[in-house]
Amino acid sequence: MSTSQDRADTPEDTAAGTGGDTAAATATAAGPAGAGEPLLEVDNLGKHFPVTQGIVFKRQIGAVKAVDGVSFSVRKGETLGLVGESGCGKTTTGRMIMRLLDSSFGKITFEGRDITGLSQGQMRPLRRDLQMIFQDPYSSLNPRQTVGAIIGAAFKLQGETPQQGTRAAVQELLQLVGLSPEHYNRYPHEFSGGQRQRIGIARTLALKPKLIVADEPVSALDVSVQAQVVNLLEDLQDELGLTYVVIAHDLSVVRHISDRVAVMYLGKIVEVGDRNDLYAKPMHPYTNALLSAVPIPDPAQRAGRERIRLQGDVPSPLDPPPACRFHTRCWKAQDICKQVEPPLVELSPGHQAACHFPENTTVSQTDLVAKAAVSPGASADGAADAPQAQE
Amino acid sequence: MAGKASKARGAETIDTAATGAAAAHTPSAFLEVRDLKIHFPSDDGLVKSVDGLSFELERGRTLGIVGESGSGKSVTSLGILGLHNRRNAKVSGEIWLDGQELVGATEEQVRRLRGRDMAMIFQDPLSSMHPFYTVGQQIVEAYRIHHDVSKKAARKHAIEMLGRVGIPKPDRRVDDYPHQFSGGMRQRAMIAMALSCDPELLIADEPTTALDVTVQAQILDLIRDLQREFNSAVIMITHDLGVVAELSDDILVMYGGRSVEYGSVEDVFHRPEHPYTWGLLGSMPRLDRDRTERLMPIKGTPPSLINLPPGCAFSPRCAFEGLTDGKATTERPELRESAPGHKVACHLPAERRRQIWAEEIAPKL
């Protein structure tokens, strides 16, 4: 896999501080079962938003570490789900992949090409391959343009004239997403939320993209309509061979549409794994807590269910806790969690977790602790900023 | 109209003679809503937000009202609290709270009850708290309106309430402004404010929709614990079937301003009889079951409340509409008892409904 080569070029790799064997494990984020080749690779990507003080002379007094070194890859034709609570950096990650936000550090590789430093002009031809579905179908469509103009803009911007003409092409797209061709001349306000989201999806599909980043594509919709859009996204994937990165906070929706799932907490990925594996055997305590917090729509289960209740709120990303960021709320936390950041390591095939005391695994805890302990550099923020001293 | 608005807590008797024509009915439940209609005239026509709703609720019980946006669930709660726009809204029907009729009561009468006997937790705590006053000042204000106590005593009460809803260091946080609280803490403060007067009816309108899932779990636990402690009646309004299943004793499913199914939580989740309830259950991906290949969405979109479809409001989206001999599109179905305590508004024969659920719907969920 080409992943290992890419990783070798980046000295400030998160995994670099954790010793050779774990670096190799991290590199195969795609997992061994990888059928398709990786379409998108994200390597130690981070975004720090500066916080400034002063009016004339602004000086930086801190940084919001929205995303602090995440690495993953997405194979052709698969769906990767990014889940986490608000403020965990999932949307920032999605926007960086789209290059709507410049990353502070790290590398984004799309189809083997490094797109991290490309200018807006250089990005433009790539935009046809990389598209985004936005959360809010009300604010993401221009109210003064007709549906035809909104969807047709994609062709115009890329200077492309479809064979059958723009109008016919747009009408085909409308049909593809379950709207009728007569909607061509209507305005967004004439549609319901679910229909608007379909318009947004039609616009996304106009140029036959390879990768679609969908940021909370269904969270603004009613339950019954949500299911329609979820089914539509799945049908389109089968029909057009699309690859999705789906960002969502709803764990049940993510399980339904993703092949693999990455769980984020405070700017870091704490666990990645195959959908079934991750939901059936969550390893990271945070994943366990998240899953147990989801209300189950079955009154028969409310008595017998074992619940994990996290105390307090997510800490501020301005000043994240040192070492393992979850230790302030974790019931398994011990001294080592406050001192040494646990690396994201593969604990079973295709399933990685960043925890000193993972659950549902055969890897012994002493092994893990020993591994982490020999890499004293793997501290919370050090991993990103400074190259780590290897043992 | 209730002659005495004075509070007679726990008293079942009320001066019914003064209630005029409606006095024929003696309410038995703590809260009883009968044929409630809340209509708003607009330029486009009459918006029938709530159109003939009936339910009852006892102390210590929780009623979950489920529905999609525009189903009238929030308007119902505002109507009970008297928070709807009195100039615009046309309200008819009956709302009996502890023997007092609220429909037609004066603003002043309702104001005396609101906060003390009935309180509300809103969806978005940031926009429902005043940004200019500290959290403490807002709780103190709510408390002092109904209790003749000194500012100092009220402040002490506010601190106690904040502590009870799990805010750390309440004696210091009481002087914080709402923006200094996190989302979950704000919702806790909101609950503290709502409970400061020990209300007997608590209405929670999407109390956790704006919160993260781990915080949602904390807040739901809190509401459950406080309800046990205060023995209050709770109305939980939400679109999330998971939340109602966790908390409710009874469930009312609303569609297009009307109730389509009403029964115990077991009735609605284990033996649902209305096609809309089936649709809601089939639309949801579930974590507690093996993943289904495809979700079973309801076709179409929720109706406009101005132009409700004739007959059954759900008929254009219903997969079984054809089995009613055309009744679904011409005649509005009444909410009828299908089994003891389980009411359904559907033209399909009850036998057929149970058969469809058992053979066609349940196996696919």
TrEMBL record, chain A:
Low complexity bias spans:
13-32
Q: Highest taxon of the source?
A: Bacteria
Q: Which UniProt keywords apply?
A: ATP-binding, Nucleotide-binding, Transport
- One Pfam family from the record: oligo_HPY
Sorted alphabetically, the Gene Ontology BP terms of this entry are: peptide transport; transmembrane transport
User: What InterPro entries does the record point to?
Assistant: AAA+_ATPase, ABC_transp_ATP-bind, ABC_transporter-like_ATP-bd, ABC_transporter-like_CS, Oligopep_ABC_C, P-loop_NTPase
Biased segments, Basic and acidic residues type: 1-10
Q: Where is the ABC transporter domain?
A: 40-291
* Ranges for region Disordered: 1-32
Record-linked PROSITE patterns: ABC_TRANSPORTER_1, ABC_TRANSPORTER_2
Gene Ontology molecular function, alphabetical: ATP binding; ATP hydrolysis activity
Family per similarity comment? Belongs to the ABC transporter superfamily.
Name it: Vitamin B12 import ATP-binding protein BtuD
Gene name in the database record: btuD_24
TrEMBL record, chain B:
Q: Where in the cell is it found?
A: Cell membrane
Q: Tell me, in one coarse class, where this protein mainly resides.
A: membrane
The record ties this protein, via CDD domains, to:
ABC_NikE_OppD_transporters
Instruction: State the organism of origin.
Output: Actinomadura macrotermitis
InterPro entries in UniProt: AAA+_ATPase (IPR003593), ABC_Ni/Peptide_Import (IPR050388), ABC_transporter-like_ATP-bd (IPR003439), ABC_transporter-like_CS (IPR017871), Oligopep_ABC_C (IPR013563), P-loop_NTPase (IPR027417)
Its cellular-component GO annotations read:
plasma membrane
Superkingdom of the organism of origin: Bacteria
Please identify the protein, giving its name as recorded: Oligopeptide transport ATP-binding protein OppD
Report the sequence similarity comment from the record: Belongs to the ABC transporter superfamily.
- Show the SUPFAM superfamilies listed in the entry: P-loop containing nucleoside triphosphate hydrolases
